[in-house]
Amino acid sequence: MQVLPSLAPDAQCTALQNLTTLSSSYPDLFKPHLATFLPFLLTISHPPPLSTPADLEELSIDLDGPAQAALEIVLELADSKPAPLRRLVLSSGEPFIKAAARLCLELIARLSDDLDDWAGRDAWEDEEDAEEEEEEWSRFGEEGLDRLAQGLGGKTVLPAVWPDVKALLEGESWKGKYAGLM
Question: Which of 93, 79, 91 is nearest to 147 (CA)?
Fold first, then answer.
């Protein structure tokens, strides 16, 4: 873990993708190290804490780098070993769930602003590729939040996520409201 931050982003992605494979095939390997491993992964995939949940709409995370791979490991462990994660949440509070859910909500809010796209009209090909990528990130965020809730249980996830969801629903941005509803 100490070497990973010093690697180039491509090397970080490769290392984290290999850890994703390990976490899905052999999740028990990570069980004794969850208390240090999860916060480490979330620092890779998530920016520093926000001053208010309403600032969620202002986040700009480079998800083409190692962030997606780090979040995928967290989600994979939530799928395969939810009980140890729940115990970790109960012993340390909710920062792990808040950080993972906040990143998922930010991903959900990554939607295109192109009115032609929403109206169903044809757009230029290169713009379509960019919009499809934004929609893929949004779907990944929805799937991630769903995987967290299913793996850890609604009673564990909802109290940690609710303040952010409430702030998004009360905000002015339609993207934030969409993320809050999802």
Answer: 79
Q: What is the pLDDT of residues 94-151, one digit of tens each?
A: 677 888 888 888 888 877 666 555 555 454 444 555 556 567 778 888 999 999 999 8
Residue range(s) defining the domain that contains residue 131: 4-181
Beta strands in 110-166 (DSSP E): none
d(CA 103, CA 182): 14
The count of domains in the chain is: 1
Q: How many helices and strands in the chain, by DSSP H and E?
A: 9, 0
Nearest to 71 by CA among 50, 42, 96: 42
Are 24 and 76 contacting, i.e. CB atoms less than 8 angstroms apart? yes
Token pair 């993972």: residue: 100
Residues 6+ apart with CB under 8 A from 21: none
Among 38, 146, 45, residue whose Cα is nearest residue 94: 38
